Amino acid sequence: MNKTVLITGANAGIGKESARQLALKFGTEKIYLACRNMHKAKAAKLELEESTGKSIFEIIIMDVSNIDSVRSAVQELETPIDALIMNAGGMGGKTPGAKTEDGVTNMFASNVLGHIVLLDELLKAKKLNNVALFAGTEAARGIPKMKMKRPSLLTSSVEEFESIADGSYFGDKFNAMSSYGLVKYTAIMSLLSSARKHPNVRILSMSPGGTSGTEVANDMSFILRLMMKMMSKTLMPLMGMMHKLETGAKRFVDGISDETYETGIFYASKEKVLTGQVVDQATIFVDLENESYQDNAYDAIHKFIR
Known about the structure:
By secondary structure, the chain is an alpha/beta fold. It has one domain (4-301): Rossmann fold (3-Layer(aba) Sandwich). It has ten helices and eight strands. It has an eight-stranded mixed beta sheet, sandwiched between helices. Helix 3 (67-76) packs parallel to helix 4. It is globular and about 50 Å long.
C-alpha cells in the first residue's frame, strides 16, 4: 500500500487529477504536490481539499528542469515516500531546442533530466520505498495516425542518445512535435535500465494515452492549440485517439497501485490507438527491451548530471 505519494507537475492537468483520485483511495495518508510555482500550487491544493474533503496535501517547490531545485526538494523530505509519479514535462516552452546550463535542450530538461536526478536522489537517500512511475507517451514508439514516426536510431549508442539530449541529433531546425517522441524514448530507456539496477523498487513507465485537458498543448502554437482543441472534442475520440482526463490519470493511479504492472516495462495503448487497454510496448517496438540500448540511454543522460 502506498501511504505517501509525490507527484511532479501536480498543480494542473493529469498531475492534479491523479492527486485527486489518490486522495480518495483507501490508505493514502499524504500527497506531496511538487510544483515550480507557489501561487499555482496553493490554488491547486485548495481545489483538491475542497473536491476531496481531505487535508492530506503538502506543497514541495520543485522545478524539474533545474537539477539544484530537484536536489533541494529531496533534501526537504523528512521521511521516505512510498510512490513517485514523474508527470511534469511538456513540449519545452517557447524555445524547446535552446540549451540549458546543463547542456541539454529545454525540452529534455523539463521532461527527462530533472526526473532522472529526482529518482537517483531518492534512491540514494533511501527515500523511496515502493514504486516510481514515469509519464511515457505513445510517441516514444510512434503514432502513425499523427505522423509521429517510430524512433529509428542508427546505433543506439551512448553518443547517439547524448545527441538527442543536447539537440544536435535534430540539426539546425528543432521541431518540437518530431523531437518529443525521441526525448521521451530516451527517458523511458534510461528508466528501464534503472529498474534492473534497483530490483527492490518497482520502476515503470506508463503513458496516460491521448488525454484531453492536459498541459502539453499549452506549449504549442496558437493554431496547433486550436486544432487540437477542436479535434479532441470531435474526431479524435471517434478514432480511439482521445479519452477524458480522469481516464488518463487513472492509468497513473493504477500503475503505482496495481503490482501486476511489472517493473522494467513501458505500458501504453495498443498499436493503432491512444486509448483503451494498455500493453507492454516492447511487443510493438522490440528495441524497448534491448538492455544494451537501455544502458546506453542511462549512461548518456548521466553524462549531463553534475
